[in-house]
Amino acid sequence: MGDWVDNSTKKGWLTSIFELGAWLGCLYSGFLAEILSRKYAILVNLGVFTVGVIIQSSAAVAGVSCMIAGRFITGHQGLAIGAISVNVPNYNAEVAPPEVRGSLVALQQLAITAGIMISFWIDYGTHYIGGTGEGQSDAAWLVPICLQLIPGIALAIGLLFMPFSPRWLVHHGREAEARKVLSSLRNLEQDHPLIELEFLEIKAQSIFEKRSTAEKWPHLVALTPMNTFKLQFVAIGSLFTTKAMFRRVITATVTMFFQQFTGINAVLYYAPSIFEALGTSSNTTSLLATGVVGIAMFLATIPAVLYIDKLGRKPVMLAGSLGMGICHFAIAIIFAKNQHQWATHKVAGWAAVAMVWFFVVNFGYSWGPCAWVLISEVWPLSNRAYGIALGASSNWMSNFIVGQISPDMLKHISYGTFIFYGLMTAGGALFLWLYVPETKRLTLEEMDVVFGSVGVARADSARMKEINREIGLDDALRNMGIKAENDRSDSSGDEKWQSPKGEVEEIEMKN
Description:
Elements: H1 3-6, H2 8-36, H3 38-57, H4 59-62, H5 64-71, H6 79-95, H7 101-126, H8 139-147, H9 149-160, H10 166-171, H11 175-186, H12 193-216, H13 225-238, H14 243-260, H15 264-277, H16 283-311, H17 314-338, H18 346-365, H19 367-377, H20 384-412, H21 416-435, H22 444-451, H23 456-471, H24 473-479, H25 501-510
Helix pairs in contact: 2-3, 2-6, 2-13, 2-20, 3-5, 3-6, 3-9, 7-8, 7-16, 11-12, 12-23, 14-19, 14-20, 14-21, 15-16, 15-20, 16-18, 17-18, 17-21, 18-19
């Protein structure tokens, strides 16, 4: 790879081209999932992913241009990954039973950190192929690239045996097929009350989305590919039209900006270079220290997914900011004092390495999972899908910038890199403290009050109540001994847009 590894600017581009592609993939993911189905959209992107791996693997013969093309144009770790990162969670949420959807979100975060951990140790192992010196074989980097085909192909094969999303089927008028899929997924007869109840809930949500679209953009009601494409951009643009909604835009996009500018992906992408700069004795030792980064973040994520709903979002994220900021400034001080004498101050070098490990622990339990939870909770029902997409777009673009600038920063300002990310972490904490509300246990109506858009969630709730009554969902709930939403007092302070799923989930778990 020559100059593309040694030149810090080119190294940044080689790494960050992934995030730029992912940003674009994130933008088209909703369109593809809606016109093809979630299932086929994932399969298409897995095909693109596979082609990208093959093109990348040819870089040993054809040159670095194939590596760049594989990472961006064909989508490997770029377009395809950006789209898959949106479509897979959506598909999981739409086929899973209601009582385990929250657990699946937690498991997804754990799976991501587990994948990072495993990839680090694969890199460490393949580093020994052909020796660790000048004679190292190209297989040392080709094998990790090609190994990525295994999970991609496994996912594609498994998905062939999976059904279409019931929600997508209902939304596109294939209701009989949706009932059949629900019956198969829940292992219950099609006429079982729980199947009828879940089907009606899905249908109510579909009708709600169509009526919301008809009210705001009547010219885009028909589910044609062109209308679906236009709707993605028109709906996101509408988020900027009122001051109250723009406050939510700021909350989501700036939160994701600061999540990336804590420097987490500077550490994950360039950990070997960072550890080498901190005086580790060899590239092998740097890769070993990088493997510990993966383990630390994986273990730190476990308590987060268990306790986030008990402790809230802001306290956990502020605690994480404090820990990450301390780590950044501690590394900067150690680096500044010892950068020219690591050989005689090995303890100082390992102290800085330990601070990097402690940094990823603080990120793993705080900004890692909590930022994604927070940006999904601040939106009214009628804007949620587009708001989350906007937040994800901000995340990928910020990720691209961090990946691009970090190698040059490490080369030209050395320990100043950690001061910069420490200050950005402090800025994120200040933004969180002064601007972002605590979203734990807030109803949609209470969220409206916080953001100054009183009435949006109430209007959504009124529309959903009307739909529930119209399609017979209220009657289905009463038949099961559950109080329907239209039976509940408006003064209860517990008005929500959907049926009382807590009670439904309890019945489902008993069955």
